[in-house]
Write a structure and sequence with these properties.
Helix content: 25-40%
Number of helices: 7
Radius of gyration: 16 Å
Strand order of the largest sheet: 1-7-4-3-2-5-6
Number of strands: 9
Shape: globular
Structural class: alpha/beta
Order of helices and strands: HEHEEEHEHEHEHEEH
Length: about 220
């Protein structure tokens, strides 16, 4: 893996703090079991905004939130989706939700991708639709950087695609202010995995002494 992180919001220096041997460290997570984790889980999804499933990959992640204030987030599972229409993407989310005690789901609804959260809301009414803007993207990036810099995000050390996805995100000046874009290259795409994880992280307020707002656990059948 080689990625120039000189302009990255998430340089390798801080991303190293996320890397763990999940098999050794996460004793309460059994990835090959039908129900791999007993605790609460938040899903983040960055959809493919094409009706035919062409174009950039979509990304779906399952994140275990901290068990106590100031604790660590753990990315338990990730999926890259390509070639699925909106119904197929929504079904993939439902399948992952069926494995965990899912309390929150967040999905980017920008552009044509708005169909996915509409479909998910039929069986998970509290799913949050995120509409991207400079303000929204900035808030998610700064929240994620705060979490990562504090050593509060973990994912398996073998997930180089997640590492590269975060490292690809850099600031860009637009007429609306400073936004954040991904340096495209290799399998990084539009940093879909990083954005999916950030969708889940944004459920925790910046002031972590406040409880995350809203939501309840929904059992998916």
């Amino acid at each position: 893996l080689f990625l120039d992180d000189s302009q990255s919001m998430f340089p390798l220096e801080i991303m190293r703090r996320c890397l763990v041997d999940s098999w050794d460290v996460w004793r309460d997570f059994q990835p090959y079991d039908p129900q791999p984790y007993a605790g609460e889980v938040w899903l983040g999804y960055d959809p493919n905004a094409s009706e035919t499933g062409t174009g950039d990959d979509a990304a779906l992640v399952a994140v275990a939130p901290p068990a106590k204030v100031g604790g660590k987030f753990r990315v338990l599972e990730k999926r890259r989706l390509k070639g699925l229409d909106f119904e197929g993407q929504a079904q993939a989310i439902r399948e992952m939700a069926g494995k965990y005690s899912v309390a929150k789901i967040a999905i980017d609804t920008t552009g044509a991708g708005k169909a996915v959260p509409q479909l998910v809301a039929k069986w998970f009414p509290t799913a949050e639709a995120i509409t991207y803007s400079v303000t929204v993207k900035s808030a998610m990036v700064y929240k994620a950087k705060n979490v990562i810099a504090a050593g509060r995000l973990e994912f398996d050390a073998g997930w180089m695609d997640v590492l590269a996805s975060f490292m690809a995100i850099r600031p860009e000046v637009t007429r609306h202010g400073v936004s954040f874009v991904a340096s495209r290259g290799g399998s990084v795409g539009h940093a879909d995995l990083a954005w999916a994880i950030m969708h889940a992280l944004q459920f925790e307020p910046f002031d972590i002494t406040e409880p995350p707002g809203g939501g309840s656990t929904v059992e998916i059948c």
